[in-house]
Design goal:
By secondary structure, this protein is of the alpha/beta class. Helices cover 24% and strands 29% of the residues. The protein contains four helices and six strands, in the order E-H-E-H-E-H-E-H-E-E. The chain has helices at 18-25, 44-49, 64-72, 93-103, and strands at 5-11, 31-37, 55-58, 79-81, 110-118, 126-136. The protein has a six-stranded mixed β-sheet. It is globular and about 40 Å long. The model has no long low-confidence stretch (mean pLDDT 89).
Length: 141
């Protein structure tokens, strides 16, 4: 049986990159759940609604875990992918993520994925680091 995937994100003022980001994930997401900070003052909410009806405002309480948990409560699929609002999925990586969730042993609860960060035009200012943004939709995580 193939496992399903929720894309979950919290967003604030992401209108410049949001379409490209969501376009990069939409082929692998069985559902998209987006939380928009109520102090966001651009078109983030309107753009998010182009991709899903499941867009929710949240009040920022200076606590990322509260904001993330509010969004995670809405996820209904087997696995959750929770990137930052400006992190694109590179071509071909969606298939790798689907392969991971469909083949990972049952005792694995989370997977760290490499995040590649590049600033500016030059790779001189780039680096990679692992971050556990892919995890089972399970009470307690």
């Amino acid at each position: 049986m193939f496992k399903s995937l929720s894309l979950a994100m919290i967003l604030k003022n992401e209108e410049e990159t949001l379409r490209g980001v969501l376009d990069s994930y939409k082929a692998i997401a069985d559902e998209i759940i987006l939380g928009v900070d109520d102090s966001s003052n651009d078109k983030t909410y309107e753009i998010a609604k182009e991709y899903t009806e499941q867009v929710f405002y949240f009040k920022w309480e200076d606590d990322f875990s509260k904001a993330r948990n509010l969004v995670l409560e809405k996820c209904t699929k087997d696995w959750c992918l929770f990137p930052d609002g400006h992190e694109y999925l590179r071509e071909g990586d969606g298939e790798k993520i689907k392969e991971i969730i469909n083949n990972v042993p049952d005792n694995v609860k989370a997977v760290s994925l490499p995040i590649h960060f590049t600033e500016g035009e030059s790779d001189i200012q780039s680096f990679s680091f692992p971050r556990p943004i892919l995890f089972r939709n399970h009470v307690g995580i």
